[in-house]
Amino acid sequence: MRTPKPGKSPSMQPDAMSQKNASGLNREIQNKIGQQLRAIYDDVVQEGVPDRFADLLKQLDKAPAEGKSE
Amino acid sequence: MSVDPALRDQILAAIPSLRAFAISLSGNVDRADDLVQETILRALANIQSFQPGTNLPAWLFTILRNLFRSEYRKRRREVEDADGSLAETLKSHPDQIGRVEFQEFRAALAQLPAEQREALILVGASGFSYEEAADICECAVGTIKSRVNRARSRLAKLLEVDNIDEFGPDHATRAVLMRHEN
């Protein structure tokens, strides 16, 4: 068993400032990407179920059995 | 064939999200709706291969993606211009996000390779876990993670450049130029 050298402790932050800057900007852009991605997607989701699909499932329900269902 | 009502309701509930995914794949609303319809028919015809209690949406997404890929191979040349059609056919969005910004985002999204785009959408918009997305795309979880990461950093790079432009004198000119897409 070795004792960890004091200098290697995880609390050491060499150039925390510059890293924070870079990842801060990055995070902002990543948030924006996530937001816009969901906006595009939710635009469509909010249209709900178009009639053609509700009708389709209704029709299939009424259709005579075609082979066993399970 | 009579559909178990509970199952039918679950399929119905998945349709809005299936459509959004199909549009993001095909870049075309009509084709997307045909894909969704075919997905439903295929799912019901093979319902015995679905294990109750497992993830129905993921199963439906898998079917849809496979249908799209086999259709895509047939129509490659036609679909290849997804660049323009994706930007064009997705409807314009209410203005909580600026219109120009939104078009720029779509254009950037359309520039991604298809596999990166679908991975990003499944994880970032459909709300699937990396594991579910890997099942849907029939690849390793690590592959999905790296596709999503590459997609994000590519988009970030594209949008970062745009952000810098936004404060420059050229922005208004560019905004006007963007309008031709409509």
How would a crystallographer describe the biggest sheet of chain A?
none
N-C termini distance of chain B: 45 Å
Spatial shape of chain B? globular
* Average residue pLDDT of chain A: 70
Counting H and I runs of at least 4 residues, what is the number of helices of chain A?
2
Low-confidence stretches of chain B: 79-95, 165-182
Number of helical regions of chain B: 10
Please give the oligomerization state of what you see. Answer: heterodimer
Which percent band covers the strand fraction of chain B? under 5%
Q: What is the share of helical residues of chain A?
A: 55-70%
Order of H and E elements of chain B: HHHHHHHHHH
- Beta-strand portion of chain A reads under 5%
List the helices and strands of chain A in order: HH
Number of strands of chain A: 0
Radius of gyration of chain A: 28 Å
The geometry of chain A reads as rod-shaped
Tell me the number of strands of chain B: 0
Characterization of this structure:
The complex is a heterodimer of chains A (70) and B (182). With 70 residues, chain A is mainly alpha-helical. In chain A, 60% of the residues lie in helices and 0% in strands. Chain A is built from two helices and no strands. Mean pLDDT of chain A is 70; it is low at 3-21. The longest helix of chain B has 26 residues, at 141-166. Chain B is 75% helix and 0% strand. Mean pLDDT of chain B is 81; it is low at 79-95 and 165-182. Chain B is mainly α. Chain B has helices at 5-26, 29-45, 56-74, 76-79, 82-89, 99-111, 114-124, 130-137, 141-166, 171-178. Chain B contains ten helices and no strands. At the A-B interface, helix 1 and helix 2 of A face helix 1, helix 2, helix 6, helix 7 and helix 9 of B.
Task: Based on the model shown, name its key terms.
heterodimer, A: 70 residues, mainly alpha, rod-shaped, disordered N terminus, B: 10 helices, globular
Summarize the structure.
The complex is a heterodimer of chains A (70) and B (182). Chain A is mainly alpha-helical and 70 residues long. Chain A has helices at residues 16-45, 51-62.
